[in-house]
Amino acid sequence: MITNFGKVGVLYGGRSAEREISILSGTGVLQALQSRGIDAHGFDPAERTLAELAAEKFDCVFIALHGRYGEDGSLQGALEQLGIPYTGSGVMASSVGMDKITTKIIWLSKNIPTPRYATVAPGDDLDKVVAELGLPLIVKPPLEGSTIGITKVEKAEEFEAAVALAAGFDEVILAEEFVTGREFTVAVLGTGKHARALPIVEIVAPQGNYDYQNKYFTDDVQYHCPAQLPDALTAEIQKHAVDAYRALGCEGWARVDVLVRESDMRPFLLEVNTSPGMTGHSLVPMAARAVGISYEDLCVEILRSARCKMVKAQG
């Protein structure tokens, strides 16, 4: 665990569809670290090369990138090659966590509850999927985040257009049963047996529409932290979140999104974000505040966990 940070790079921006949000996250992190006297510098991989990153001679980096090329293991692999310690999950966990389909396969193997699903592509027999999963359905590109490319399909005739939209982002599309209920998220900090869940946040969006605009750019969404839930259900959700985090091999920090079904109060895990948002609307800082961890302290704690994850070859 790092105690003397040296020169720190804050990686933000990037080339993904979530660039705008990453800039907001990275700016917040950069200011927070600088406010604690840390020699932190911003670095945008969309505007500068890996050679320039190496030339900066950062002692460690805080990854505030979201989505492709920053949260999917590709950048993590480059940092391993450069020998630069970094925050968050390693190459494998980042790659798996970015892929909602692979995540589901692993979770189901560990008996972690997640909504039923099917994989589809343009031209597939969509009637068969509707017969299997029912309606409504959620159709999404499995490698995107921030609700990008997602459609709620309420009628069978809407399915084809939803698949076409998602296919603009990914070749294989995730069709998932729609769970009617309350929406929650759980931040997890730490690694391995030291991983711990922060208080649960409940998300109450206008007409249940927690889309990109509502998520980042309006104050119409209500957040309740800690979420008002029975103690036993709170403990169950937090345990599932930590188990899900460990199952993928996550490190440092992440956020697990959860739905609790209205009919029977059963929780279902949707996805894990291995580089969550750190904006003024973001949920990990909100959960941290509920247990007395300031935004600045949270950034420092995450940075302190930075390391290279790959085992060095013996020789």
Automatic annotation (TrEMBL):
Residues annotated for Mg(2+) 2 binding in this entry: E271, N273
Q: What is this protein called?
A: D-alanine--D-alanine ligase
Positions annotated as active site in the UniProt record: E18, S146, S282
Residues at which Mg(2+) 1 binds: D257, E271
Recorded family membership: Belongs to the D-alanine--D-alanine ligase family.
| Cofactor binding, per record | Binds 2 magnesium or manganese ions per subunit.
Reading the lineage from the top rank, the first entry is Bacteria
Biochemical pathway: Cell wall biogenesis; peptidoglycan biosynthesis
Reaction(s) this enzyme catalyzes, per UniProt: 2 D-alanine + ATP = D-alanyl-D-alanine + ADP + phosphate + H(+)
What top-tier enzyme class does this entry carry? ligase
Gene Ontology molecular function terms on file: ATP binding; D-alanine-D-alanine ligase activity; metal ion binding
Q: Which stretches make up the ATP-grasp domain?
A: 104-304
Name any cofactors this protein relies on: Mg(2+); Mn(2+)
Q: Where is the protein situated, by its record's location annotation? A: Cytoplasm
Which Gene Ontology BP annotations are present? cell wall organization; peptidoglycan biosynthetic process; regulation of cell shape
One Pfam annotation, family name?
Dala_Dala_lig_N
Role noted for this protein: Cell wall formation.
What is one cellular component GO term in this UniProt entry?
cytosol
Alphabetized, the UniProt keywords read: ATP-binding, Cell shape, Cell wall biogenesis/degradation, Cytoplasm, Ligase, Magnesium, Manganese, Metal-binding, Nucleotide-binding, Peptidoglycan synthesis
The principal location of this protein is: cytoplasm
Task: Give the EC number(s) under which this enzyme is classified.
Answer: 6.3.2.4
Q: What InterPro entries does its record include? A: ATP-grasp, ATP_grasp_subdomain_1, D-Ala_lig_Van_CS, D_ala_D_ala, Dala_Dala_lig_C, Dala_Dala_lig_N, PreATP-grasp_dom_sf
What Gene3D superfamilies is this protein classified in? 3.40.50.20, ATP-grasp fold, A domain, ATP-grasp fold, B domain
